[in-house]
């Protein structure tokens, strides 16, 4: 017997609509910056990953962005030739290639984000201290809810 969940509260439905619309507007604004920076979305994904995790292997990049290792290797080759990443072979095991973010890659990533830090500073400066504290509380609470939902999904998926 399947247990049916109660429908979401009206306030939840309204909030989903507002947040979804806001996310769509932000994605369109970000897409404008992405097109202006000169790198493909996949290359920007790699740059972002390297910025986040630091030097890593081509196979890890492939796994994280959902492409085959040969495709990742070809992309990293092009990015290395463009000076966006540094590709180095491990001295102990020449089969292992480590990829790290070059200065030009870091600059390209920042351009693609449209000066996100500066932009956020200008935007958030328009809020008073209580609004800033509320923003932080909401973001932290959303992170908790996302983590709880992910854990629940994993628990349900486990045999």
Automatic annotation (TrEMBL):
Any one Gene Ontology MF annotation carried by this entry is: DNA-binding transcription factor activity
SUPFAM superfamilies noted in UniProt: Winged helix' DNA-binding domain
What Pfam families would the database entry show? MarR
Q: Which GO terms describe its biological process?
A: response to stress
The superkingdom of the source organism is Bacteria
InterPro entries on file: HTH_MarR-typ, MarR/SlyA-like, WH-like_DNA-bd_sf, WH_DNA-bd_sf
**Any idea where the HTH marR-type domain is?**
9-144
Protein name (Swiss-Prot/TrEMBL): MarR family transcriptional regulator
Organism the protein comes from: Candidatus Amunia macphersoniae
């Amino acid at each position: 017997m399947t247990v049916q969940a109660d429908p979401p509260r009206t306030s939840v439905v309204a909030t989903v609509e507002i947040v979804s619309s806001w996310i769509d507007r932000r994605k369109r604004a970000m897409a404008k910056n992405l097109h202006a920076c000169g790198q493909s979305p996949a290359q920007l994904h790699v740059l972002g990953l390297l910025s986040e995790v630091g030097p890593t292997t081509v196979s890890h990049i492939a796994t994280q962005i959902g492409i085959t290792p040969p495709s990742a290797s070809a992309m990293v080759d092009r990015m290395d030739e463009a000076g966006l990443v540094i590709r180095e072979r491990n001295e102990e095991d020449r089969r292992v290639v480590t990829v790290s973010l070059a200065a030009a890659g870091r600059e390209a990533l920042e351009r693609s984000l449209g000066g996100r830090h500066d932009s956020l500073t200008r935007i958030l400066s328009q809020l008073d201290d209580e609004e800033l504290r509320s923003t932080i509380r909401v973001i932290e609470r959303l992170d908790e809810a996302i983590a709880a939902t992910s854990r629940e999904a994993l628990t349900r998926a486990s045999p």
